[in-house]
Amino acid sequence: MKMVYSLPVLAILLATAMSSIFVVDVREKVLILQFGEVKQVVDEPGLYFKAPFIQEVFRYDDRILGLVTDPTEITFADQRRLVVDAFARWRIVDLQKFRRAVGLGGIDEARNNLSKIVNPEVRDVLGSVPLQSVLSEDRVVLMNKIRDNARAKAATLGIDVIDVRLTRTDLPQQNLNATYSRMQAERQRDATDEIARGNEAAQTLRAEADREAVEINSEASKEAEIIRGQADAKRSAIYAEAYGQDPEFYAFTRSLSAYANALKPGTTAFVMAPEGEFFHYFGADPSDQTGNGAVSASGATGTGSTVAGGSAPKAP
């Protein structure tokens, strides 16, 4: 019977002991509340005791936490606009203030409250400077100013704002489209200029090549004419030398060439006097010195003759 009654007692004692003991992790802080009133703040890790059943343990993250603000369109002092969002690092430093500020909302409620502090500070600080300041080395100074202002206001929440950084600074969508269009127009204009300069250079090269071609052709024609003239002079000299050695034979060979060119069989017909110089060797008698014995190829004589084809003349 004693064992039967002792088991419930042991269970109650065990439950009471378990309810009075709690462990604090190195990554957290603990707030002990009794009937809604803060009784103890524990910010060191270890094993702790509390009054069982009537005291409650509330745990809060002791690590550095992050906050990403919503993108906000900022109008700068020079009336130019950018869409800006920021990233804040913060930490709980005063659990009692934090508890009174957020109540049972915890970390999520703290993020909402901190966002309401950081966003206006970003808008106010950036709105007092020109756009160029955000895109220059002054950006760090502006971020530190936002951090300091947010830290002073967040202290009432039991929060320490460790750092604030601007993560994005973009043009609004309508301005972004206009900027892209302007950039495309500028690139197109640059491309057109490059093409025009290329065409101009190509035309210059073509004109230079054409001029050089004309000069080369003119020089070649000049040299060809000089060589041709020299050849003609040499040929005439050879003819003159040959003519000087035997003028009669030279005249005979020249007549033969003329006959061959003029009296082609079946193709040539003409009327002329047989006493003409052309027929000097055509059928002439070498013993006849009067020059009246010229005959045609068909044997006709007289004051005129029709020649078609022809027989070879006699050698002198």
Give a structural overview.
This protein has 316 residues and is α+β, with helices and mostly antiparallel strands. It has 7 helices and 11 strands. It folds into 3 domains: 2-61, no CATH class; 65-170, Tetrahydropterin Synthase, Chain A, CATH 3.30.479; 247-308, no CATH class. The chain has helices spanning 2-20, 95-102, 106-127, 131-134, 138-154, 173-245, 247-262, and strands spanning 21-24, 28-34, 37-42, 46-49, 55-61, 65-68, 72-75, 81-92, 159-170, 269-272, 305-308. The strands form 4 sheets. Strands 6, 7, 8 and 9 form a 4-stranded antiparallel β-sheet that branches. A 3-stranded antiparallel β-sheet has the order 3-2-5, with no helix packed on it. Strands 1-4 form a two-stranded antiparallel ribbon. Helix 3 (106-127) crosses helix 5.
Give a brief rundown of this model.
With 316 residues, the chain is of the alpha+beta class. Helix content is 50%, strand content 22%. The chain is rod-shaped and about 170 Å long.
- Overall helicity: 40-55%
Q: For the record, what CATH class of the largest domain applies?
A: Alpha Beta
Count of β-strands: 11
**Secondary-structure element order, N to C:** HEEEEEEEEHHHHEHHEE
Global Rg: 61 Å
Shape: rod-shaped
Separate helix tally: 7
* Structural class estimated from helices and strands: alpha+beta
> What can be said about the biggest beta sheet?
4 strands, antiparallel
Q: What is the CATH superfamily of the largest domain?
A: Band 7 domain
What is the beta-strand fraction?
A: 15-25%
Proper CATH architecture of the largest domain: 2-Layer Sandwich
CATH fold call of the largest domain:
Tetrahydropterin Synthase, Chain A
